[in-house]
Inverse folding.
């Protein structure tokens, strides 16, 4: 292994370039390829990072063309338009954030005081905080304002190493505003140059005009909003918050079955505040993922394992809401693939998958290698992008991170810092000091 070097990452122009847009990254002390079998990884496979020492990557355009040791790659591709020297650094795929609510207006900063005073999630909502507070602000905001706010947040994600982001609606809770949120997410993604996976979450809460009439609101979602979303092709998934006071498992089943008939696979906010059968529902409808899972039953977890449902854990929300942390080791032992997300939202404002990885190691029981797998390969499959991102292999998108750290263990070790020295998104350097030689 090459010794660690004190200098920063260097981007230099090749003197003779055969391909106008090409990228050569060399001398990574640890190149985490995460190569392996297709599909989300569970059990022993969840710890195999496919590490190459003194590793290198060559990309043309948006895609990776070659991966190997630096000696091998430099022999085959001695020059490129841009060269990154990652001596003494860790290189891995760009993070995939599998669960966010990045489009909304307004602030809930005042709720921090209520949390400090010991108020529960339900008590904060009763005071006029919570989801419905954000719904009011989001309904009042213009689409342009939501896109601008989303752009600011997506750029923050990128600077911290996230190159693919799932973004949910769910703060409009009426057809025109749910569509407005999804369009704003798409606009923000185009401007930011980030891959965004949109998810329809009209069943996030019961809006005030339907208070006490959740079945009537669900009827509206099924008859009007969901078909409009499907017709506009503005979402890749349909999600539902299955929880007491929100939507029952039976209601979630109705919605997700309708979504499936319209070509939208399901996701479930499952068993966050209590065991309400969310994990079992996700298995029954073969949802792509069940998220949160703080209180999932053994039967629900076993059903998820049999059905191949991915568990997306959100430790930053547990931290921000003073709730327990989901038991990642229990899920892995049952054979459930584990993914990670920030759950960025106005209640848990966290853009950093680096922090989420550290929290997962300290509180969800994941080993550093398992947490990295959860933030790359498994998160990619949880948002339907596993064929394009999540590993460093020939044919995949050139989404790469360079960490200013001697070992990948530092992602689990360091809490709250920023190790990302360079970000490459689709073959373009988005963060990193560029020096001309």
């Amino acid at each position: 292994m090459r010794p660690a070097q004190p200098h920063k990452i260097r981007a230099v122009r090749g003197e003779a370039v055969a391909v106008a847009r090409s990228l050569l990254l060399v001398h990574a002390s640890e190149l985490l390829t995460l190569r392996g079998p297709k599909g989300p990884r569970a059990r022993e496979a969840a710890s195999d990072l496919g590490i190459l020492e003194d590793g290198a990557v060559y990309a043309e355009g948006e895609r990776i063309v070659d991966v190997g040791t630096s000696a091998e790659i430099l022999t085959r591709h001695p020059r490129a338009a841009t060269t990154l020297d990652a001596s003494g650094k860790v290189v891995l795929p760009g993070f995939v954030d599998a669960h966010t609510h990045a489009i909304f207006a307004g602030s809930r900063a005042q709720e921090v005081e209520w949390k400090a005073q010991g108020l529960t999630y339900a008590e904060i909502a009763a005071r006029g905080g919570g989801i419905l507070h954000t719904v009011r602000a989001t309904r009042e905001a213009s689409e342009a304002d939501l896109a601008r706010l989303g752009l600011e947040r997506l750029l923050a994600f990128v600077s911290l190493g996230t190159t693919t982001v799932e973004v949910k609606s769910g703060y409009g809770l009426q057809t025109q505003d749910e569509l407005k949120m999804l369009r704003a997410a798409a606009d923000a993604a185009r401007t930011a140059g980030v891959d965004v996976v949109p998810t329809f979450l009209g069943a996030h809460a019961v809006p005030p005009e339907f208070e006490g009439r959740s079945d009537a609101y669900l009827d509206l979602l099924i008859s009007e909003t969901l078909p409009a979303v499907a017709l506009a092709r503005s979402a890749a998934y349909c999600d539902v918050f299955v929880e007491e006071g929100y939507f029952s498992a039976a209601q979630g089943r109705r919605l997700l079955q309708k979504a499936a008939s319209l070509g939208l696979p399901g996701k479930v906010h499952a068993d966050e505040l209590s065991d309400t059968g969310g994990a079992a529902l996700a298995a029954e409808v073969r949802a792509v993922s069940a998220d949160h899972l703080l209180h999932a039953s053994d039967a629900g977890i076993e059903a998820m394992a049999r059905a191949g449902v991915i568990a997306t854990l959100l430790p930053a929300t547990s931290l921000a809401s003073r709730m327990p942390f989901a038991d990642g080791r229990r899920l892995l032992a049952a054979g459930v693939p584990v993914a990670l997300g920030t759950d960025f939202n106005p209640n848990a404002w966290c853009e950093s998958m680096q922090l989420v990885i550290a929290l997962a190691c300290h509180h969800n029981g994941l080993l550093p290698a398992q947490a990295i797998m959860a933030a790359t390969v498994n998160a990619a499959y949880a948002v339907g992008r596993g064929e394009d991102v999540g590993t460093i292999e020939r044919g995949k998108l050139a989404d790469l991170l360079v960490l200013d750290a001697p070992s990948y263990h530092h992602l689990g070790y360091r809490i709250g810092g920023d190790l990302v020295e360079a970000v490459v998104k689709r073959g373009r350097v988005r963060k990193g000091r560029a020096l001309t030689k």
The CA atoms of residues 66 and 370 lie 25 Å apart. The longest helix spans residues 214-232. The radius of gyration is 22 Å. Residues 96-382 form a domain with the TIM Barrel fold (CATH 3.20.20.140).
